[in-house]
Write a structure and sequence with these properties.
The longest helix is centred in the middle third of the chain and has 26 residues. Helix 5 runs antiparallel to helix 7 and helix 9 packs across helix 26. It is built from 26 helices and 22 strands. The protein is globular and about 100 Å long. The chain folds into four domains: 106 residues, no CATH class; 100 residues, OB fold (Dihydrolipoamide Acetyltransferase, E2P) (Beta Barrel), CATH 2.40.50; 193 residues, P-loop containing nucleotide triphosphate hydrolases (Rossmann fold, 3-Layer(aba) Sandwich); 157 residues, P-loop containing nucleotide triphosphate hydrolases (Rossmann fold, 3-Layer(aba) Sandwich), CATH 3.40.50. The chain is an alpha/beta fold. The structure holds adenosine-5'-diphosphate and magnesium ion. The site of adenosine-5'-diphosphate (ADP) has 17 residues, from helix 12.
């Protein structure tokens, strides 16, 4: 970094201890950080707007004579004094209103004086006003010069004023002009893409010369911004790649190349793997051969068959004498995995053990002992897996299912359960289908596999939107379907944060449906029930003794009951599209025609209907996620934990997606040894101390 820009902000004149402290609250301690504190917007004080042409809502600079000035009172609760100042400039009139003023100000705002103001013009009852504008008294014959640049408006904090920030910034921009910053991007690359240098770009963003610049900046189209967006994306990616490089140098369990278990397992299955499943399996087998810790993300739409792929990944690890842990976000799902793994692995002589929150007392101690001594080879569980009391004998592979439900810290806690100095292999599975380019940006530290094919014979789930007013008809349909031996889900949603309310809603619906459909066996499952109760209900649904299962979104992930062919979702508008898609993925798993009915209020807004139509018209999770991203933004769709959104300063992952491939190229270029210095500079500029909290590990 350039020496001058490393200097502390207090080396600027006018920055004393107090100001220094306030700047620190904005994360600014060095000149360099100050330069990257970019304006939020700009104000045009380069010209004076005649009063006659003022329009409501405009923020403008005006200059006029005071015609009249006086205090009046208004009543609002208690009466308040109000200073009203009437102005004219020969083209029109304007009234200023001040609610807080002192005698000095009142004196200066006296009739006959000239004034220059900056503020927002508003039309109030037929006349134009400004409330509390910035102003100065001027001499009409020798007015102060107008600004030649547009005025930046910076993010500030309590007690730090725009004016003081602008003043020190002006000093700093002068220094920048004289001394310049070392270019952080390869020169040739900048020229190729017609981007300004780092120094020019900062000058433009702090002091745009004209409205054309400002318009481009405001629509985030200005090359000066683009270069910084690309920089930040690249820096983010570089930090992940570097982290990745560090991990690849760590010791990992060495996995023997042996297919014996796999052959046996495959021949016991009732189905053939899809080509996509086979491809992904080959991808992680390659990883094992590299003898570096595997870090692989497997994405596959709901029902694409990730579980069997995970099971196959565990086999060589177990054959090599290591343990494998599979962590799922809910007990329902963990139980289901337990059953599958038991079915698949028992004949291979592999010992499968589950561990959940519900395991207590002696039972738990016994399980923990089996895990600690290595007798348990395949361990399936929930968050219970990384609790302090659990220690593994030789953890070789971690599989995380539905990774968006876990935080980075939870993943790391499990990772620490491996032996000292050993980085276990990791397989991370998700059904939240993130568009590939976005995934590559957010997960640059992970290798990426995609199961982009559903098992054959799956029929699309016919989806329709039905008004609550047709609830009675719907009840009849439910009754008919049950009579035909079909099974249904009835999903109750409420604002997700309130699990209590959601459960109450489900209980109420359950009671009502039991009254309306007395001949049908109805079950209820929600998040506040005990694990054993939940399991009992799910099992009863699986074996067909329950025909209609009323549930909250606890069944969102994983639950696999092929005979269930109809899903009714109440108030689907409360859920994200990807979440509805996940829910809907619970049906359409068998070979019967299946349906999803979205039960909505009578008067949906246009926007909500449009969102739901996306679900109705599309079956492909990737397309749905793409639309959901456009509508709700990356943070919402993937969970802030995953995007680390807070860690982007100017990048918006949805808005800026057109730069992803550029950033990818650039990151590759900068990873070359010859570019080490620029790489470090970029990381310093954009990631800095945050690198210490890097996402993976
Ligand atoms: P998800 O990717 O949503 O986790 P699962 O692993 O739960 O999907 O698989 C969904 C269902 O599809 C399961 O019943 C599973 O046994 C079945 N399945 C998986 N792979 C295949 C395949 N190649 N052919 C047919 N059925 C399959
Ligand atoms: Mg799954």
């Amino acid at each position: 970094m350039d020496d001058w820009s490393r200097q502390d902000v207090s080396t600027l004149s006018g920055v004393g201890p107090k100001l220094k402290e306030k700047l620190a609250r904005l994360g600014i301690t060095s000149k360099q950080q100050m330069l990257f504190h970019l304006p939020l917007r700009y104000e045009d004080r380069t010209q004076i707007t005649p009063l006659g042409s003022l329009q409501s809502g405009q923020r403008v600079l005006i200059q006029a004579e005071i015609l009249q000035s006086g205090v009046s009172f208004r009543r609002q609760g208690r009466s308040r004094r109000l200073l009203l100042v009437k102005l004219a400039d020969g083209t029109g009139f304007l009234t200023l209103r001040f609610f807080n003023f002192n005698a000095g100000q009142q004196n200066r705002l006296e009739k006959g004086n000239w004034i220059r103001c900056f503020g927002e013009a508003r039309l109030v009852m037929g006349s134009i006003e400004m409330v509390h504008p910035e102003y100065e008294i001027i001499h009409p014959d020798t007015p102060p010069p107008l600004d030649s640049y547009l005025t930046p408006v910076y993010p500030v904090t309590d007690g730090l004023h725009q004016l003081s920030l602008r003043k020190i910034m002006r000093q700093l921009i002068l220094q920048l002009g004289e001394l310049g910053l070392t270019e952080t991007l390869p020169l040739q690359w900048i020229q190729q893409h017609h981007l300004p240098s780092v120094t020019q770009a900062l000058q433009i963003l702090h002091n745009p010369r004209n409205l054309d610049d400002v318009q481009k900046i405001q629509s985030v189209q200005h090359p000066a911004q683009q270069r910084f967006i690309i920089e930040e994306l690249t820096a983010h990616r570089l930090s992940l790649l570097q982290r990745r490089q560090q991990i690849s140098r760590l010791h990992c369990p060495s996995i023997n190349d042996s297919d014996d278990f796999e052959q046996k397992l495959l021949s016991s299955l009732e189905f053939e793997l899809t080509a996509a499943q086979r491809r992904v399996i080959n991808e992680f087998k390659q990883d094992y051969r590299l003898n570096q810790p595997m870090m692989r993300l497997i994405q596959g739409d709901v029902g694409s068959g990730k579980t069997i792929v995970a099971a196959i990944a565990a086999l060589p690890v177990i054959a090599s004498g290591y343990q494998c842990a599979l962590m799922a976000p809910t007990e329902i799902l963990a139980q289901q995995h337990m059953k599958n793994f038991y079915t698949w692995f028992a004949d291979l002589g592999i010992n499968v053990v589950s561990l959940m929150g519900a395991d207590k007392g002696k039972k738990r101690t016994l399980k923990e002992q089996q895990i600690a001594c290595g007798e348990a080879q395949m361990i399936v569980g929930t968050h219970a897996l990384f609790q302090a009391s659990v220690s593994f004998n030789s953890l070789g592979l971690i599989i995380i299912d539905e990774q968006h439900r876990f935080g980075v810290d939870q993943r790391q806690a499990l990772q620490k359960k491996a032996d000292d100095n050993i980085m276990p292999h990791q397989l991370i599975m998700t059904a939240t289908p993130i568009p590939r380019t976005l995934a590559m940006s957010v997960y640059a530290d992970l290798d990426y596999s995609q199961i982009d094919e559903l098992p054959p014979g799956r029929k699309p789930v016919k989806t329709s939107i039905i008004s609550q007013s047709k609830r009675d008809e719907l009840i009849n349909k439910v009754s008919t379907a049950c009579a035909k031996g079909q099974q249904l889900y009835w999903v109750c949603t409420l604002i997700e944060e309130s699990e209590v309310l959601q459960c109450e809603a489900a209980e109420l619906t359950y009671e009502n449906l039991r009254k309306q459909l007395p001949d049908i066996n109805i079950g209820l499952v929600h998040g506040r029930m005990k694990a054993a109760e939940k399991e009992q209900v799910i099992n009863a649904f699986k074996d067909g003794s329950i025909q209609l299962l009323v549930a909250t979104t606890v069944i969102e992930v994983g639950v696999d009951v092929p005979n269930a062919s109809i899903m009714i979702i109440e108030n689907p508008e409360r859920l994200g599209l990807s979440q509805i898609h996940q829910l809907r993925g619970r049906v359409g798993r068998g070979n019967i025609d299946s349906f999803c009915l979205l039960l909505v209020k009578a008067n949906l807004s246009r926007q909500v209907s449009k969102r739901l139509e996306v679900i109705r018209n599309h079956q492909d999770g990737f397309i749905i996620a793409e639309k959901d991203l456009e509508i709700r933004g990356a943070g919402e769709v993937m969970g802030t934990r995953q995007t680390g959104e807070a860690s982007f300063r100017i990048v918006d992952l949805v808005r800026d997606k057109r730069w992803f491939s550029q950033a990818e190229q650039l990151a590759k270029l900068l990873m070359e040894d010859t570019n080490a210095q620029q790489r470090q500079q970029l990381l310093d500029n954009w990631i800095g101390f945050k690198a210490a909290y890097s996402d993976v590990g």
